[in-house]
Structures are given as structure tokens and as C-alpha cells.
Design a protein that fits this description.
The structure holds 2 protein chains of 2 kinds. Chain A is mainly alpha-helical. Chain A has 16 helices and 2 strands. Chain B has a two-stranded antiparallel ribbon with strand order 1-2. A two-stranded antiparallel ribbon of chain B has the order 3-4. In chain B, helix 3 packs antiparallel against helix 4 and helix 6 runs antiparallel to helix 10. Chain B is globular and about 75 Å long. The chains are: A mainly alpha, B mainly alpha.
């Protein structure tokens, strides 16, 4: 009992002290500095007003924020028990690396003579692009597949956004994110070690992926906040601004299913879901469903499971029809 | 100026003295006093392991004999022992490295066959005991040119050598002398080891195990590189601990697994050599301190604790060798494939043919080392269970050859072959073997690591387990 409490406590602490984590105190600090500077220079607030705006009690101590905190803590316990049974990126990479030896099209060590910097730069860049693209794909799927949307509502039911909202995730969603991450890491690692040999390395700052440090250091935590930092339109066409992600959370119908991207917004442009940030004040949530869904922290965990059970029951009851017709077709969300 | 010179000379003198000073007492195995009650002879040192050093020299010479194409009579004389003079083939004196032995029988008239592992070895064709496996290998080697069987990819010199280290030395030390002979009623410390001996039962049992380990008595005072270079005959100064101008092969040479341990420790990630040698020294001191009395229960527990340290680390040294040679075999599969352009039918010109044959020769050498070490892991008396089965399957009974054949058994004294095997698949086996050594034996030196790229990247990227949205 004491041992697992100790492990959970270490995990909790690492969320704030490990620079690989988004909630690392350094990133939170840089986000608050960026927000303050933005409010002062662009929005013409005084320092005092900027600080008061940033630490708005109505946001940070809202009922929605309390749900963020509760789910953050509950999820740490749930994942403590789930973690040992999850497939790791190491297992996937090893499996793929071994499978690559069975094919005869691409020779082992094709780029072994490429040199350290070429190998490291290629790996870091390809991993960043592949990782960011698959995040977009998964996020797209979470919105467009009804059974997955039921679980993603957990995140979108937030009516105020704070950096902790990033952890407001249903555990089933968490499993999807974990599988994606392990798969992306496994495939990239195996492919690069097969082609470049053991010289492959990740370019890092303080031991952390250079892109991760840059993304988080430049205020990724403001994506989930009430500080609507906007980039010039030319930049927003390449990089997702905090205000663009806040628009993604908007419950206004015209903003539905926009801006699925994380770091890059080019994926949204490629798949027709891009939207520039807007100057209007946005309201967040899942429309009329919000009140029922967030009735209690337990209803947030339970309702998606019940929805899935009902979907499965409908599929079973409809077995007189071909199974393919019973599977819900892809369609936009309908709240 | 003069003062500076004096100061520099003094510092240099101190440094030189520190470097060349004789072994530090307490870090050296022996001498230990005679403690046997009632002994009236003139011996003053109870340490004795000349039989084991004799076997170390037989092993070295047997490997040399097979590799030089000696006749079966000669190779068998190193396995079974022989009357009269038995020439030492390795290590021999050179210009810069003098040894004090030329005839093994002057060290001890002994043999390897009588001490070889008598359990079964499912990992080698023919359902034989360890002793029979060695006999069979030596016999088969005689029918080849210098121990190389190109058809099956066997290098008998390596196979015999690496399995002798395990099937005789490791087996005798960890399955006999440090195991049952450390029990209370077996070779007790208040009686001579045998009638007429000047050492007690426990003293000699412990000494014999140390002789099988193969470390120089002063080895714990040296660095891994110094110990490694002694076996390579590159370091006369550090080997000659008593400064008599010659390397005493009984106490000043590193052999067998001790040499491999020093090799792994050179990388800086491990300290097998010192851990094991120091445990031998500390265990021997406990026995010496018993002063010829039966060991008390706490003393025996202490001795057994040192024995466990020795054997668990010794096992890791062998597992490190399996890991290392799995990596070498993996690389050599690629090297062999490179000479074929991925297709054996492309090997046509004589130059390409020579290059191809040379690559195959190295492939057989490294597989022989791998197989010899992996078979050795079975001989300590500890049943490896499923791990052993997995390891044997991955190593195979022979390397997969370019024509897709691989030895899979023995019938009427001849090897039987499986067909249609893939060298690429075999390369994957080597990767799995390295993983097995990491997961089950916790190897840390990891020479010739073919899987580190993956694990290092996985570590630096961090866990993919996440409950975060974007």
C-alpha cells in the first residue's frame, strides 16, 4: 500500500519536475511570462491588470477546473495500475526491428555511413513530423467517430481552460493516446536504427527532445487557457496558435471540428479543417450536453462507458443485418 | 632550478613507486598460513591449486593444437593427459614475455576429461554428456583442416575451448567446490583434504575453485587493462609480481573466464574481475581465520555468501560473452551477405570466392565462441529452465549457412541438416539472444551491442504512457 502510494506520488511529482512533461514548472513559468507580456504589450494592460487577468479566480477556481484537478489525480491512479500491461515503445520497436530483417527490399544499414549529425537530425525531424501528424489523425478520429467522441467529450466538456485541462482525459482516450505514442516511437526508432545503425540519436536540450522543449517553452500550456494569444495569419497557417486551439474548444457550431493539429496547423489545411483564430470571446463546452455530462466527476467517467455499452448492444441486437451496416458510419458530431 | 628538479624527481619517484610497487597485502590471494592441526612438515603456505593451473595449461594448449592441425593423438593427449613430457603450446615464452613452464606435467600431471560436465546438453547434437560432447568435438576436429568444418560452419578450436572453460572450470568451481564441498560434513576444515595433505578440506576446496577461476594471485591489485594485457602477453612488468624476471604460470597469469572478465571490465561498466577475485580472497580469509577448526555456522554462511557472489558474477561473465558473440555473429551474417551481394549465385570470381570464404571462416569462429559459451551456462548445476531452452533454440546447433542448411541433430555419428533456413532469420535470433541476456542475466558490459540503439532511443524519448490530450 505504502509502496504504490509512493510510486503514484513520484509520478505526480514528475509531472511538474520532469522537463519531458508538459506541466513541468519551467514551462508553466514561461507560459505565464509570455501571457503577461502579451497582455501588457498587445492588450495594453498594466502589469497589475495583466496579472489579475491571468490569475482570474473565475477561471482557475471554477467548477470545471476542479473537475480538471480531480480527473488529473484519478487518472494517475488508474494509469498506475494500467501501465504494467501496456505495450511499450521498446517492445514495438524491437518487434519491428526484427521484422525488418525478414524483408529483402531495403538493406540493413543503408545509410550507416551518413554520419552522426545527419542521422540525429533526420531522426529528430522525422519523429517530430510523424508524431505531430499522428496526433492530428487521432484527434481527428476522436471527433469524427461517434464512439470515440463519447470519450473525447470528457476533455471538451471543460467550460474554462487551464493548463491542467490537458490532463482532463477519459482513461479510454488515454489508452488510445498511449497506443499512438508507443506505435509512433516504435516504428520510428526501429526504422532509423535499421537504416542508420546504432549512431541514431535524438537532438536534445537538457536531455529532452529539442522540439518538445521549444514547443512547451514557447507557451504550449496557453493552448488550454483564457489568454487568447494569436499569431499573424501567415504564422497561423504553419503553427497552431493558442487562440486557434481555443477556437477548437468553442461550442459555437461554426467552430465545430476545426483545428485538430497540435504544433503544426498544416495538417488541418491539408484535410480541410483549418480555421484562423478569431477576436471574439469564445465559450467552451459541449453545448446542451455539458450540464448533464459534468453533473459529477463520476458521471464524466461513467457516461461514455454507458454510451459505448449501448452502441455495442445495438450492434448485437441488429445482427440480423450485416455487421458492416451495423457499425456506425463516420459522421460529424451532432450536439 | 635545482629545487625544481629535486621536487620533480621526488614526485616522479613516488609516482613510479606507486605504479611498480608489489601487490598490496590483502588484495592478493595468498600466502595463507598452515592451519591443519597436527601438521609437522616444513610447508608454510597452505595455498595449493597446481592441478587447476595444469588444466588451464591443458586447455590453452588443446585450443592451440586443434587450431594448428595437430593429430588426434596429440589433441587427445591434452584432453586426457599423457605420460612423459607434455609440451606447453600456450602461453609460450617470447622476446618480451618469459614464462617459467615448457612441460605441463611439471606443473601437474592431470587431465581435462576426468573433470568434464557429465550432465546432458540438449543444445548440442547427439544427446551426449558434456564430456562426450568435448570428445566428439575433438574427434570431429581431427577430420578437418585446422579444426574448421566449412560444410557445417564449425570452428572446433573455438567450440572446444569455450566449452572447456564452462564444462570443466566453471562447472567444477560452481557445481562442486563452491557448492557441495562447502557443506558442513563435506571436506571439513578440521581434517586434511586427503591423507598426507598439508591443507584442510575447506582450504583446498576453496583454492581449487580459485584455480579454476583463472585469476593471477595479485590480479585484484591491477586494472582491467593490466590484467587483460597479461593474458595477451603484452605486459611482463605487471605480470611478474615477485620481480624474478619470469612469469610464474601458477600464480602470475590470467586464464579463461578471468581474462574475459577483465576484457569486459575494460569498458568501465562492470567490475567482474575484482568482484569475483576479491570474494575469493575474502572467503579464503574466513577459512584461514578458522585456524584449522571446523567452520562455525556463521563462518560457513559467510563463506557461502562469498561463493554466491563468485558464481552469480561468473555466470554473468559467461552471459556477457554470449551477448558479445551474438553481436559478432549478427555482424558477420551481414558481412557474409555482403560478399554475396545478397545472393550466393553472384559469388563467381576467384577473388570474390576468397572474400566469401574468409567471411564464412570468421562467421564460424564467432558462432563457435557463442555456442561454447552458451553451452557453458548449463553446467553450473543451476537449472536454467525455460531460459536455457530459449537460449539453445536461438543459438541453434550450428550456424545457418548461405545455402539455408543448419545442423539440427546427429545420426550414426554424422550431423543431420535442416534445409530452407534463412540467414536473416538467424540474424534476428542473435538480436533476441542479446535481449535474452539483458533481460534474464542483466548483462551490463554489452560488448558488440546490436540492440542498444533501440533501448537508448526509447529511454531518451521517454515513456509513451500518457493520459494527456493535445
Amino acid at each position: 500500500m505504502i509502496e504504490w502510494l509512493d510510486i503514484i506520488w513520484s509520478d505526480l511529482a514528475s509531472q511538474f519536475f520532469n522537463p519531458k512533461k508538459r506541466l513541468f514548472l519551467g514551462y508553466l513559468l514561461s507560459a505565464s511570462v509570455i501571457a503577461t507580456v502579451w497582455l501588457c504589450l498587445i492588450k495594453r494592460h498594466s502589469i497589475g491588470s495583466a496579472i489579475r487577468t491571468f490569475f482570474d479566480r473565475k477561471v482557475w477556481f471554477s467548477r470545471s477546473s476542479r473537475h480538471d484537478l480531480a480527473s488529473f489525480l484519478i487518472n494517475r491512479v488508474i494509469f498506475f495500475w494500467l501501465r504494467p500491461v501496456l505495450l511499450t515503445q521498446l517492445a514495438i520497436a524491437t518487434l519491428i526491428f526484427e521484422l525488418l530483417h525478414q524483408q529483402t527490399v531495403i538493406p540493413l544499414g543503408l545509410f550507416e555511413g551518413a554520419g552522426y549529425w545527419t542521422a540525429a537530425l533526420s531522426f529528430t525531424l522525422v519523429f517530430f513530423l510523424f508524431d505531430d501528424f499522428t496526433r492530428f489523425v487521432v484527434h481527428f478520429a476522436l471527433h469524427r467517430i461517434p464512439a470515440l467522441w463519447d470519450f473525447h467529450k470528457f476533455h471538451h466538456s471543460a467550460e474554462t481552460l487551464t493548463p491542467l485541462t490537458v490532463t482532463r482525459t477519459h482513461p479510454v482516450e488515454g489508452l488510445v493516446f498511449t497506443a499512438r505514442s508507443a506505435l509512433v516511437q516504435g516504428v520510428t526508432i526501429a526504422g532509423f536504427v535499421f537504416l542508420f545503425g546504432n549512431q541514431v540519436d535524438l537532438l536534445t536540450i537538457f536531455g529532452v527532445n529539442i522540439f518538445v522543449v521549444t514547443f512547451h517553452g514557447l507557451g504550449s500550456n496557453l493552448r488550454h487557457s483564457h489568454i487568447a494569444i494569436r499569431y499573424p495569419q501567415a504564422v497561423e497557417r504553419l503553427l497552431m496558435s493558442p487562440a486557434q486551439h481555443q477556437l477548437h474548444h468553442s461550442q459555437s457550431e461554426r467552430h465545430y471540428d476545426r483545428n485538430f493539429g497540435v504544433t503544426l496547423s498544416v495538417w488541418d489545411r491539408m484535410f480541410g479543417s483549418f480555421h484562423h483564430s478569431v477576436s471574439e470571446t469564445l465559450s467552451f463546452g459541449i453545448g446542451k450536453e455539458t450540464a448533464r455530462f459534468t453533473g459529477s466527476i463520476w458521471s464524466m467517467y461513467w457516461l461514455p462507458v454507458r454510451s459505448l455499452a449501448r452502441r455495442l448492444a445495438r450492434v448485437c441486437l441488429a445482427n440480423a443485418r450485416p455487421i458492416t451496416r451495423a457499425i456506425p458510419s463516420f459522421r460529424a458530431r451532432n450536439y | 632550478m635545482k629545487q625544481n628538479k629535486l621536487l620533480m624527481s621526488t614526485v616522479a619517484g613516488i609516482a613510479l613507486a606507486a605504479i611498480t610497487s608489489p601487490a598490496i597485502a590483502g588484495d592478493v590471494y595468498g600466502p595463507y598460513p598452515i592451519t591443519l592441526k597436527g601438521y609437522n612438515g616444513d610447508k608454510t603456505d597452505s595455498v595449493s591449486y597446481s592441478g587447476q593451473i595444469g588444466r588451464q595449461l591443458l586447455h590453452n594448449s588443446l585450443k592451440k593444437a586443434i587450431g594448428s592441425g595437430a593429430s588426434l593423438d596429440v589433441t587427445m593427449s591434452y584432453f586426457n593427459g599423457a605420460d612423459g613430457e607434455l609440451a606447453l603450446l600456450d602461453p609460450k615464452s617470447g622476446d618480451s614475455f618469459k614464462v617459467d613452464v615448457t612441460d605441463i606435467n611439471t606443473v601437474s600431471k592431470t587431465n581435462l576429461s576426468g573433470k568434464a560436465y557429465k550432465g546432458s546438453l540438449p543444445g548440442w547434437p547427439g544427446n551426449m554428456t558434456g564430456k562426450e560432447v568435448l570428445e566428439s568435438m575433438i574427434n570431429m576436429a581431427a577430420a578437418t583442416e585446422k579444426g574448421y568444418d566449412a560444410t557445417h560452419g564449425y570452428d572446433y578450436g573455438q567450440l572446444v575451448s569455450k566449452f572447456t572453460m564452462g564444462g570443466v572450470f566453471y562447472h567444477q568451481a560452481c557445481d562442486n567446490y563452491l557448492d557441495e564441498k562447502m557443506n558442513a560434513d563435506n571436506k571439513p576444515n578440521d581434517k586434511p583434504y586427503k591423507d598426507g595433505a598439508y591443507y584442510t578440506g575447506k582450504e583446498h576446496s576453496w583454492d581449487e575453485a580459485f584455480g579454476y577461476w583463472g585469476a593471477a594471485a595479485h590480479g585484484a591489485t591491477l586494472s582491467p587493462k593490466q590484467n587483460y594485457d597479461i593474458t595477451k602477453k603484452k605486459n611482463m612488468r605487471d605480470a611478474d609480481a615477485n620481480g624474478d624476471g619470469v612469469v610464474n604460470l601458477k600464480s602470475e597469469m590470467n586464464y579463461a573466464h578471468a581474462y574475459y572478465a577483465a576484457g569486459f571490465d575494460k569498458g568501465g561498466n562492470t567490475s567482474y574481475y575484482n568482484t569475483i577475485t576479491t570474494a575469493f580472497i575474502n572467503g579464503r580469509q574466513v577459512i584461514a581465520d578458522a585456524n584449522g577448526e571446523k567452520l562455525t555456522n556463521p563462518q560457513r554462511r559467510e563463506v557461502k555468501r562469498h561463493a554466491r557472489t563468485i558464481c552469480s558474477n561468473w555466470e554473468k561473465v559467461i552471459a556477457e560473452a554470449v551477448f558479445k558473440y551474438a553481436g559478432s555473429v549478427y555482424s558477420n551474417i551481414e558481412a557474409v551477405k555482403a560478399t554475396m551481394g545478397g545472393n550466393m549465385w553472384r559469388v563467381n570470381g576467384s577473388a570474390e570466392q576468397a572474400e566469401h570464404q574468409a567471411a564464412l571462416r570468421k562467421y564460424a569462429k564467432y558462432w563457435g565462441e557463442l555456442a561454447g559459451f552458451s553451452l557453458s551456462l548449463h553446467t553450473s548445476g543451476v537449472d536454467l529452465g525455460e531460459i536455457g531452452v530459449k537460449m539453445d533454440r536461438l543459438v541453434g546447433m550450428g550456424p545457418v549457412m548461405p545455402d539455408g542448411t543448419q545442423v539440427n541433430g546427429m545420426s550414426n555419428g554424422a550431423y543431420t541438416l535442416a534445409n530452407g533456413e534463412s540467414m536473416d532469420g538467424f540474424a534476428v535470433h542473435m538480436l533476441k539472444l542479446q535481449n535474452l541476456m539483458v533481460e534474464e542475466f542483466g548483462v551490463e558490459a554489452r560488448n558488440n551491442d546490436k540492440i542498444s540503439g533501440i533501448s537508448n532511443l526509447a529511454e531518451v524519448l521517454g515513456s509513451g504512457n500518457s493520459a494527456e490530450n493535445d
